[in-house]
Amino acid sequence: MKYLYLVIFFSLCVSNQTEAQVPRKIFVEHFTNTLCSFCASRNPGFYNNLNNQNDVVHLSIHSGTPYTQCFLYQQNASSSDARRFYYGITGTPALVLNGFAIPAATNYNQTSLFTPFQSQTSPISIRVEQQKYGSDSIRVRVVVKTEAMHSLGTEQLWVGLAEDTVFYAGPNGETEHYDVYRVNLGFVPINIPLAVGDSLVYSYTAFSNTNWDFNRIFAFAMVQNTSNQSVTQSESTSPSTNNLTVNSQKLESPLNRVLIYPNPTTNALNVRLENDLETSVVLYNSIGQVVQQLKFKESGELFLGDLAKGIYSIRLSNRKGIITRSVVLK
């Protein structure tokens, strides 16, 4: 009987070690505007508060309200609008922490702003890898891994690029703008694996923009609940990160050898595989809506001429795996 107790105790210890939830980072969406005088007066105190916090992923999203003339908004208008509309933001400055809108009257200087979101855990982890190629392109890979048992349903994965500091003299007097949201790489629904240890892998490629300081660009990723907008997990890199495990057998998938061209495109988009497996293709817009889908073997073609110009996410899946890439429609 003592031996049986020892076996049970050992099994419970192993289970707890292998199925432990992990710390949940705080994902901050900070809506601001370079013509907003209230932003200029409230942002410094918020940044002082932010700099004293740990395990936070911060994004400045320059909003088209109250002023569409905001220079940084105009450089990423459609993607910034998508986040503003998602939460129903009507003014600036505004804060959304882990998917929950903070009342406008809240004192952004107080450390208690972050208290409700600290010491939380999540059943999933996110690893973000990036590799910069010279000064003109970046490759990003996101690994979403199940760390503990869960009952999560369909979630949204959002991946993008931001610039850690933009030096620009705004009309409101602000001259430095931090973690500026620059481009959406993908916003797609995902089903988190149930088995502990299983992962989903997504790959993206993006090209530099003349408005960016490419040396200051970093990647971020977050997974968000589709029903209540709460953020399940988030992660980011630093501008100097170059940790993409190109030769990793664990992450490599036959679907990574797909050819999608031309990209950017003005109309038709061709997809070609190295095998003849039936493959599903779904094209999403910047707010995660399905705009086209089809199934094919070996090769397929999508016609995008009727869609609005912008950045789309294309998701390919078959029994060999799933990948997501960014597509630019000019």
From TrEMBL:
Gene3D superfamilies, per the entry: Immunoglobulins (2.60.40.10)
UniProt entry tagged with the keyword Phosphoprotein: no
Ranges of residues in domain Secretion system C-terminal sorting: 260-326
Entry-linked InterPro entries: Ig-like_fold (IPR013783), Secre_tail (IPR026444)
Pfam families: Por_Secre_tail (PF18962)
Keywords: Signal
Signal peptide: 1-20
Protein name: Secretion system C-terminal sorting domain-containing protein
